[in-house]
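Team,

Forwarding the record for the chain on the shared tracking sheet. I've put the sequence and predicted structure together so nobody has to dig through attachments.
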Amino acid sequence: MASEDEANAAAAAAEAPEGKNWRRKGKHDKPKPWDEDPNIDHWKIEKFDPSWNEGGMLEVSSFSTLFPQYREKYLQESWPIVKGALKEHGISCELNLVEGSMTVSTTRKTRDPYIIVKARELIKLLSRSVPAPQAIKILDDEMNCDIIKIGGLVRNKERFVKRRERLLGPNLSTLKAIEILTGCYILVQGNTVAAMGSYTGRGLKQVRRIVEDCMKNIKHPVYHIKELLIKRELAKNPALATENWDRFLPKFKKKNVKQKKPQTKEKKPYTPFPPPQQPSKIDAQLETGEYFMSEKKKSAKKWQEKLEKQSGKAEENKRKREAAFVPPKENTAGPSESVKTANDNSEIADIAKSLKEKAKEFRKNKTQENVRVESYLASNEESRPKKKKSTNSK
């Protein structure tokens, strides 16, 4: 084998002209005339023309998928619509209610080779609770779908339900906002999230990132919505089309919330000796002498203890009930004593009033005796206001 390979290599080297290495990688990667043609839109998906494949399919391709039992009634009602939509593209479909499965397969009338893949996605969406009118749109060439499995991302069931509700939001407001910003149809059902949109507008890619970040607790969907809103506004400015937008986007830091530390028991000092053995039930009975009593006496003693405990509890309950009916303490002083105290208080008030009046008259007489003309004049002079010195002279 080795000699044959060496001979082939030598023959190729002899045939190749000198100065050129024809065995290099990518030797056929040459610029094509239509690569740089501005009139050609390379992202445009042309509608399939049946004349491209007049012979049809050589082999029969078929796909089948199971559906849950609660979808059986709806699929049975909407199956004529699905069958009519697939018949236009030459695809036959079958609904098996016994096995709970849907099957699509190609026929002799099938011309588009990729339509069977679209039909497979259609029955997948129908099994994931997507309405039939919405699921039929997947047969268009520009429409694609992505079924995101979220069941295995979170182990705890309560945490899984809580994070799944974040995608929906109050009154489905978060889900509607994501649908508007990404241009995709989103349905959260069970352990999957079904999304329908286009890959050209990066809508499906954004939906998958939002869903995975939410279920992995990396970023809340509301923060993704804020970023998408900012990007939409930046896209309107042609000057920023070639620049990096990271400086405009908000940066959300994850806050570590302090959790309550679990209460740990205090460690006792280590002792090499084991604790003393506790007395057993028989030892306690031997100490009290109960061990040597007969069964009859033991039962009588237990019964007596039970009665004493019940009587003590009954007395306590009776005391609590009677406490509500105890009358409040009344004023034990008689009417004569109360009248006497009132008279004493009135006499004391009269004496205090007369003393105040006598003191007032005494002060008045004393001031009239001490009044003099000189003091009156002096007081008038002092009471005159002094003229303020003018500051203008300075």
